[in-house]
Amino acid sequence: MPRTKFSAILHEKCPRCREGNIFTYPLSKVSRFSITNENCPVCNLRYEKEPGTFYGAMYVSYGFNVGMVVALFIATFTIGNDPHLMWYFIVIIPALILAAPFFFRYSRVLWLYFFSDVKYNPSLADKAQGTV
Ligand SMILES: [Zn+2]
């Protein structure tokens, strides 16, 4: 059964076959979160087709970070009833550090899915699963 686009994005799978992993290690290996496979292990798609392919992912990551900072600022303001300025830093800076690996990976995944011009090819996934 083919994987949905949402499921493939959630599990950080290749945009072409939706089966191969984009990253070498799982997110739980925090010290190696940024190591990206050069090619898809299933369909051999080259993820970084030219140098700087992932520079654009920084814009996606920027959007994630700004969104989180604004949300945490509003939450801190509302819950803390406009607390001292230090409370905003105490809440927001650790959240940014903790979210960095997550934002790094999903910004690359979203960049590959929505801006890299790679189309889903279900027959590649079928071949990998041996159903064809
Ligand atoms: Zn693939």
UniProtKB/TrEMBL annotation:
Q: Supply the alphabetized keyword list.
A: Membrane, Transmembrane, Transmembrane helix
> Does this entry carry the keyword Transmembrane?
yes
Q: Which domain of life is it from?
A: Bacteria
Membrane spanning residue stretches? 54-79, 85-104
Instruction: Give the matching Pfam families.
Output: DUF983
Keyword Transmembrane helix found: yes
- Identification of the protein by name: DUF983 domain-containing protein
Species this protein is from: Xanthocytophaga agilis
